[in-house]
Amino acid sequence: MAEELSYVIITPHTIYKSRTGGVLARLLTRTSLDLVGAQMFAPSQALIDEYAQNIVTEADPQDRQIQELIRDYVKENLAPDPMTGLRERVMVLLFRGENAVRRIRNTVGTFKKNCLGGESIRDTYGDIVHNRDGTVRYFEPAVLASPNVEEAHTKLKIWAKYSGSDGGLLEKAVPTVSDPAHQRTLVIIKPDNFKFPSGRPGNILDIFSRSGLAITAIKVHRMTVAEAEEFYRPVRDVLKEKLAGPIGERARDILGSALNIPVTPELEKQIGGLLGPLAGEQQFNSIVKFMTGRAPTETRGEARNEPGTEKCIILVYEGIDAVKKIREVLGPTDPAKAPPGSIRREFGSTIMVNAAHASDSPDNARREMDIVKIRENNFKSLIESFYQD
């Protein structure tokens, strides 16, 4: 059966209420589809007008009244504020796989009267409240998704069209942007969270939401060897120096127990100085392979700039003291030393396989954003290449 490309649009209200992680967790676990792309949008009036025109259709099996409610909701809540011109934040996720449109639709759900369960995303995060006369008092769809393959094609083309002008790293999207304490910080949800379909990426996002910060950029990324080496370059020399002592101690113990060779403190230091850099380089290479799926010692020439085999999600968070707040909920590098409830305590297993990365300073955040090209996104090219197949 042929693969399909589908999407989920997470509404501004769902984002404001920090429900994004819960939505993503359900999509990943209940569809088993491949999350291939993601982008933040600050939709223009032109984008919303074009998208809204394609919402009410005969091909949509959902009740006509609900379709009209969704259309009116989109025009009212996703468009720029007519008084201030300020734009809303919207997240668009791309999923690929067999029966992707139907699987997404089933997981998102449709609105039904007197539904008291939490079977679908809309059952749990959406709302439709009626007055006694049957009119609608309050409506929040939580997410938007296509009812069929044809409409998925049409609507994805629209979002791709505006990807460059309305999407990417959103500027001036957070009220505190003019405050001196306002910061941007980079987060990477690491490859160990994507080994099999699970709710881990969404659950990690859910914990990050405790920071009270705003997501202003997101992309699904496969890091190249060249990117990983540059990204982790500051760690390289630290590892070489840091491992000298432990390596010297281990060599002393091995030589003493296995060969009955006494090692003086001076000799121990010399051995550590000799072998420490080699151990540090090996550890550095392991980090690069973990992030890319490729051993740097075996990757040459243009292959160093090709996307790796491992997937991660890269995000930018913004707000007051963003760096500190994100690192507090992330926890220290070693999961064993992380406090209960932190991301690395909950999802990490070793110092390297520790669930997520976060910048340790505003300067490093800028450096890291440049390395992973946060202002570039393959969202548009994914859509265009899929429909050329």
Please give a handful of descriptors for the protein shown.
alpha+beta, Alpha-Beta Plaits, 2 domains, four-stranded antiparallel beta sheet, 44% helix
Structure, explained:
This protein has 389 residues and is an alpha+beta fold. It has two domains: 3-223 and 312-386, Alpha-Beta Plaits; 228-305, no CATH class. It has helices at 12-16, 20-31, 45-52, 64-77, 100-108, 121-125, 149-161, 163-166, 200-208, 225-231, 233-242, 244-258, 265-292, 322-330, 343-347, 362-371, 379-386, and strands spanning 3-10, 34-41, 90-98, 127-130, 136-140, 143-144, 182-189, 214-221, 312-320, 356-358. The strands form three sheets. A four-stranded antiparallel sheet has the order 2-3-1-6, sandwiched between helices. The protein has a four-stranded antiparallel sheet with strand order 8-9-7-10, with helices on both faces. The chain has a two-stranded antiparallel sheet with strand order 4-5. A hairpin with a 5-residue loop joins strand 4 (127-130) and strand 5. It is elongated, with a radius of gyration of 24 Å. The model has no long low-confidence stretch (mean pLDDT 93).
